[in-house]
Amino acid sequence: MRGKRLAVGFLALAVCLGLILPLSAQAAEPIKWRMQVLWDPGTLPYTIEEDFAKRVKEVSGGRLEIKVFPPGSLVPTNQMLDAVQGGMFELMKQYEGYYIGKMPEVAFTSALPLGFTDSWQFETWFWELGGVQLLRDSYKALGVYYIAPTIYGQEPIHSKFPIHKVEDMKGKKGRFVGIAGPVMSKLGAAVTPLPTAEVYPALEKGVIDFADRGGLAANWDAGLQEVAKYIILPGFHQPTTSCCYAANMAAWQKLPPDLQALVECVARETSAKLFARNLVGDYKAIENFKKAGCEFIYLPDDEIKKIRKVAMEVWEEYANKSPKARAVLDSQKGWMRQLGLID
To answer: What predicted TM-score, i.e. pTM, was given to this entire model?
Structure first.
């Protein structure tokens, strides 16, 4: 299955390489965009975004330059959609779970607790079963162009206390974003949706007791081994994850068609790159976390079954918040049934 996921990424890479050939002419004055991203500097995902910007400049022959800004440097993370919508900057790399109140449908397109079990399943829904077009229709109404998802695997929970069963989470303070938030609330946790960059200090200061943040490699880079000694798997709250590139519509429409195609292609290439680096990096991170004295706890199947019942109740609650949300979940459930993930 992971081979299928990588094959999709390599196909995107081949298409992108094919776009390089006709771009021999270089504009006298490059188009300059600003992009605020989700992850903190020094972590694996942040370096991927720097690579994205370099790649766009390279394959455009210098016609489009994108400057990367760390989280919170232009606006707070949870305000990025509003900022792009208003034209404060042209491009964002965002986890859509931050604004499920504004767009209930993105509760399902950012991550689905105990839904898709592998990233290739999620990717095929986006690109082959209408997910990308559903989102482009939604964002268009906001004056924003949805470019492409970046998809990778599960995110673990990092905790200051051991978690062996659902009851252990009750009354504890946790950081979760997106639809994982209401799921964890129903399981008894007190949830706060802190930005990614605030997870480390919140754990360090005891503002929260446990948290979702990112993949294992990124979390090692962020130093979570220093503030949370327990790592809980599987990542039931976020078994596979999608972040997105989205641009101000007016800025997007000013790009010539070949540059639009190029950006979309490099975005898909970047998704494949992050997936591959995450997969390799996560194995290295596991060893590093163990050497740092962290303990991995794997929840038993009977506990996962309890959580799945709650998660599917929350799915339906959010699907009922809007016709678009219902359309997205029904589409995803149809694919999950074909995959044998649900009845």
So the answer is: 0.88
